[in-house]
Design brief:
Blueprint (H helix, E strand, L loop, with lengths): L32 H24 L3 H13 L4 H36 L9 H23 L10
Helix pairs in contact: 1-3, 1-4, 2-3
Length: 154
């Protein structure tokens, strides 16, 4: 129906430009066994890249941003906070942009392999990395490094 909100971008007046639903063509003809194996390996490599980058958003990217900020502005705390905040946002949102593009390529590779892939895996990948990484960080923080007392006196 023409007035369905999911068909017209949530508006009953009409569609906003550039918000048309994606319409996939029919699946391409399946290639040779060698081509299917290549596409399977390529999609697995892309999935591994997305998993590593998604896990990096939970620790290594913010830590790298704070380390760079400490090298740039080690004497001025206010400047350090501003630089660190800017770099953390830049690194995390930059990683999200890269992840979205890799996810689109992953969909295309899976479709080229003959799989009827219409949605990406990025949302499920974030869920899995959250379930894995957050408890690991919690164990590290509580027992290994975060809450241990320092050499100073109280």
């Amino acid at each position: 129906m023409r007035t369905d909100p999911t068909d017209n971008g949530g508006l009953f007046l009409g569609r906003r430009p550039g918000t048309a639903p994606v319409r996939y063509g029919r699946l391409p003809a399946r290639g040779s066994a060698r081509r299917i194996a290549f596409d399977a390996v390529a999609s697995a490599v892309l999935l591994a890249v997305m998993a590593i980058l998604t896990a990096a958003m939970w620790g290594p990217l913010p830590i790298a941003a704070m380390w760079i900020a400490s090298q740039v502005a080690s004497s001025n705390v206010g400047l350090w906070i501003a630089v660190a905040f800017t770099l953390v946002l830049t690194f995390v949102f930059g990683a999200l942009v890269v992840l979205r593009r890799v996810d689109q390529v992953w969909i295309l590779v899976r479709r080229a392999a003959g799989v009827d892939q219409r949605q990406g895996i990025l949302g499920r990948l974030f869920l899995v990395t959250t379930i894995v990484v957050v408890p690991v960080f919690t164990v590290w923080f509580l027992f290994l490094g975060g809450l241990q007392p320092t050499g100073g006196s109280f």
